[in-house]
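Subject: design request, 255 residues
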């Protein structure tokens, strides 16, 4: 058996295994249920429909990814827990920055499928080990979002962890992965109890205003050029006079 075939067999994950992972991380189930309730009988909800109230206690573990290339997506919005894991601000960084080099291709492949199929993906993770880095388990949920133009350019994600963070940065390896294409006509789950069928359209309820969970990067400040000082008004009288020696002799009179 070839190495590729062995690797494929190792990465094939049964449904009970992934359901066990979902039960280990209840935030995963709550985020996916909320996403399902928004989309209804559509393949996916739109980015503008995501309401922070629907994410509830999972908000600090949630994020929004923006697609930059077929296999590259960066953090557009990020929960505070992700900053704690890396010990730095993650907004603007690629998702693969959360992973060790050997695991980044698996994550990139999952991203491409979520964007292009589209599909939903669930990965189980292990934190890297070392001095001051205790054992840590984690899970990564990736759910596609549609833009106003009908394109899949955003992903709603959730990355909960189990175990102390320890010394940062903490990065992950992929233990198992499961990607499920979203079929045409596939219906969504029932409405989440206690939440409206569609989010509150008021602008003060969007993700960007939840400062303790997700925050949009602030706009760069570009200083304006100071206005030029006005030129001084032109004087009617000249500042310099040309005096001829002949004029001086005329003024003095005859010798």
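Subject: RE: design request

Done. Sequence follows.
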């Amino acid at each position: 058996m070839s190495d590729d075939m062995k690797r494929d067999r190792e990465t094939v994950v049964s449904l009970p295994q992934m359901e066990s992972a979902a039960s280990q991380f209840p935030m995963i189930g709550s985020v996916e249920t909320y996403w399902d309730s928004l989309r209804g009988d559509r393949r996916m909800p739109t980015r503008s429909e995501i309401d922070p109230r629907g994410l509830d206690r999972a908000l600090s573990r949630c994020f929004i990814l923006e697609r930059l290339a077929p296999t590259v997506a960066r953090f557009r919005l990020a929960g505070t827990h992700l900053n704690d894991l890396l010990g730095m601000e993650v907004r603007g960084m690629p998702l693969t920055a959360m992973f060790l080099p050997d695991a980044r291709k698996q994550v990139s492949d999952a991203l491409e499928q979520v964007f292009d199929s589209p599909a939903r993906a669930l990965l189980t993770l292990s934190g890297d080990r070392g001095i001051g880095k205790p054992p840590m388990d984690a899970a990564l949920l990736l759910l596609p979002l549609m833009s106003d133009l009908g394109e899949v350019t955003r992903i709603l994600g959730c990355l909960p962890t189990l175990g102390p963070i320890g010394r940062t940065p903490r990065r992950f390896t992929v233990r198992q992965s499961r990607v499920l294409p979203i079929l045409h006509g596939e219906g969504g789950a029932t409405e989440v109890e206690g939440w409206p069928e569609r989010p509150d359209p008021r602008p003060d309820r969007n993700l960007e205003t939840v400062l303790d969970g997700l925050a949009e990067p602030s706009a760069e400040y570009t200083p304006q050029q100071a206005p030029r000082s006005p030129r001084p008004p032109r004087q009617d009288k000249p500042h310099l006079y040309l005096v001829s020696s002949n004029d001086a002799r005329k003024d003095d009179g005859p010798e």
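The chain is about 25% helix and 20% strand.
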